[in-house]
Amino acid sequence: MSLIVQKYGGTSVGSVERIESVAQRVMGWREQGHQVVVVVSAMSGETNRLMALAQDIQEQPVPRELDVLLSTGEQVTIALLSMALEKRGCAARSYTGHQVHIRTDSVHNKARIVDIDDKRIHKDLAQGRVVVVAGFQGMDETGNITTLGRGGSDTSAVALAAALKADECQIYTDVDGVYTTDPRVVPEARRLDHVTYEEMLEMASLGAKVLQIRSVEFASKYGVPLRVLSSFEDTGEDAGCTVAGTLISAEDAEMEQALISGIAFNRDEAKVTMLGVPDQPGVAHKILGPIADNNIEVDMIIQNIAEDATTDFTFTVHRNDYDKSLAIMQETAKKLGAREVTGDTKIVKVSIVGVGMRSHAGIASTMFETLATEGVNIRMISTSEIKISVVVDEKYLELSVRALHEAFGLDQSA
Ligand code: ASP
Ligand code: MG
């Protein structure tokens, strides 16, 4: 017997039929003798609907009251799911965040969980109940309702799994796992059986939207094995006791590790270049300081080796920040006496991710060779221990991703 925490996202509880199907799946696990704690999101679209209501009254709603409002979405689904379980003869109890003491800090709308009292839940489990907990919400020290930021139910589930010392935290969603890359770009993309926390974090921050990043950080910190699975797959005879999906866990020396686990890409990049900047101490700070002061996040940065007394300085930002960045740079260029500012929004970032990179030389060279063979010009390069990213022209995105997917042996039939 094991203790499993399962989280069902908005689309998985998007209608009464979907909720009934979740109940069926939960029953399957119960019947196999497992203890189950279920965390649910609001029905899909509900949090947005509530948000819109608030904004009809106040463009920037009072954060405390917004949390009171937004947390109601999850209160609906915990009750409905518990009813669906009870109807099937499966004892169940629903709880809001504050009822099971999901204690958070007081940062409304993006609170962090600081503590969970697991006693009440353990008691219910010992009495044979399924415990259904509202995701996305908690309460602060003085009893105010808080929420954890959009997509926060993932984090609720992982935090509960950590507090209860669950054997596994299963995240049920509308895809059946984490893929080597976006199947819409590469039809040969495969579901991964296993990725490490680190790889998942890189992939998530590079744009793979399966899990809230914070939930992966949390899982990694507390060593909670996480599994992403589909709630839409037919449960069939063994009602839901499938354990496929993608397991996200710590690196395991026993496990055979692929060199590269996935190819991520991001279409939202833009680059800005300052040409002919005097090459002096403090220049990088003078260029990037005003950018940071405007809360613009910088991704890749390149400074060329100075050939004469000047250098070129290039960085990338989110496309939405492009116009503002360009304007700031033009100001800075005047102050520094730089020659010119140029920019480009028709660029994308393509990255290969894999912990196997650590122990293997030559991965970068395979990547560059593959792109060269396809005639793709690399504009920028950056690396970390388990990731290599390149910036290429937008028109080469699909070509680059497909070529790399094949070159690293990720294609389905490979
Ligand atoms: N209902 C919340 C949202 O839509 C939390 C979640 O779904 O994880 O962001
Ligand atoms: Mg959601």
Largest sheet: 8 strands, mixed
Indicate the CATH architecture of the largest domain. 3-Layer(aba) Sandwich
Oligomer class: single chain
Instruction: Bin the helical content.
Output: 25-40%
In angstroms, what separates the terminal alpha carbons?
37 Å
According to CATH, what is the topology of the largest domain? Carbamate kinase
Tally of discrete structural domains: 2
Give the SSE map:
Elements: E1 3-8, H1 16-31, E2 35-40, H2 46-57, H3 63-70, H4 72-87, E3 92-95, E4 102-104, E5 113-116, H5 119-126, E6 130-134, E7 137-139, E8 145-147, H6 153-164, E9 168-173, E10 194-196, H7 197-205, H8 213-222, E11 226-230, E12 246-249, E13 262-266, E14 269-278, H9 283-293, E15 298-303, E16 310-318, H10 322-336, E17 340-344, E18 347-353, H11 363-373, E19 378-384, E20 387-393, H12 397-407
Parallel strand pairs: 1-2, 1-9, 2-6, 3-6, 9-11, 10-12
Antiparallel strand pairs: 4-5, 7-8, 11-12, 13-18, 14-16, 14-17, 15-16, 18-20, 19-20
The protein binds aspartic acid (ASP) and magnesium ion (MG).
The site of magnesium ion has 4 residues, from loops.
